[in-house]
């Protein structure tokens, strides 16, 4: 069990703000870590399936001195030339894969599903798309754009389609902590394109 907190930058969102944390007291350390591995595997597998280069993906979990379990993760990719809506869908895939895993392992509760909500993934998608002139609304579809609930529905269908790959990657990530994009490609048979990302 890792008892060391990650580097402070791993606990910040893309705006430099602390990522929100939600307690999941009904889960063991191992269950919480595996759930987060599914979250990151959702990002990584959809990224690669949509033509992005995955650099690496990892789960970060630790137990504080007071016994509190904390988990986070990080998936790095290059999204050059990818549809903005597909970029948004991979952003939504993390929490959707996490919830699907909880349901399949009969750990799901409404409280745990609420803990899977990844607002920083949504906000990152909104901000990235806005840089390129695409509008992504939180609860509605702005004129000429799409809504986050619409993106979630699209992502959920793709997560279901790619579930065997996501499961394979999540289990390997839980064992190894960090996987390179090429390792994920080897595990799934997906192609990890070379878009110039640093290894």
Report on this model:
The chain has a three-stranded antiparallel beta sheet with strand order 2-1-5. A two-stranded parallel ribbon has the order 3-4. The mean pLDDT is 89. The two termini are 27 Å apart. Helix 1 runs antiparallel to helix 2, helix 1 crosses helix 6 (163-176) and helix 2 (84-104) crosses helix 5. Helix content is 49%, strand content 14%. It has helices spanning 29-49, 84-104, 110-116, 119-131, 148-161, 163-176, 181-188; strands spanning 53-63, 69-78, 136-137, 146-147, 178-180. It is globular.
At a glance:
With 199 residues, this protein is of the alpha+beta class.
Name its key features.
199 residues, two-stranded parallel ribbon, 7 helices
Shape: globular
Number of strands: 5
Number of helices: 7
Structural class per helix/strand content?
alpha+beta
């Amino acid at each position: 069990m890792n008892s060391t907190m990650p580097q402070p930058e791993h606990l910040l969102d893309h705006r430099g703000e602390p990522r929100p944390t939600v307690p999941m007291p009904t889960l063991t350390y191992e269950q919480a870590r595996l759930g987060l591995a599914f979250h990151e595997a959702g990002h990584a597998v959809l990224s690669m399936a949509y033509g992005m280069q995955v650099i690496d993906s990892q789960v970060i979990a630790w137990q504080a001195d007071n016994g509190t379990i904390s988990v986070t993760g990080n998936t790095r990719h290059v999204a050059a030339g990818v549809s903005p809506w597909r970029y948004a869908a991979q952003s939504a895939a993390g929490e959707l894969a996490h919830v699907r895993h909880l349901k399949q392992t009969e750990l799901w509760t409404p409280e745990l599903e609420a803990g899977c909500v990844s607002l920083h993934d949504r906000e990152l998608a909104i901000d990235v798309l806005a840089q390129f002139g695409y509008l992504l609304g939180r609860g509605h579809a702005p004129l000429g754009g799409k809504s986050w609930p619409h993106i979630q529905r699209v992502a959920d269908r793709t997560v279901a389609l790619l579930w065997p790959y996501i499961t394979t990657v999540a289990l390997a990530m839980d064992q190894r902590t960090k996987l390179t994009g090429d390792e994920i490609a080897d595990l799934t048979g997906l192609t990890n394109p070379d878009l110039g990302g640093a290894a």
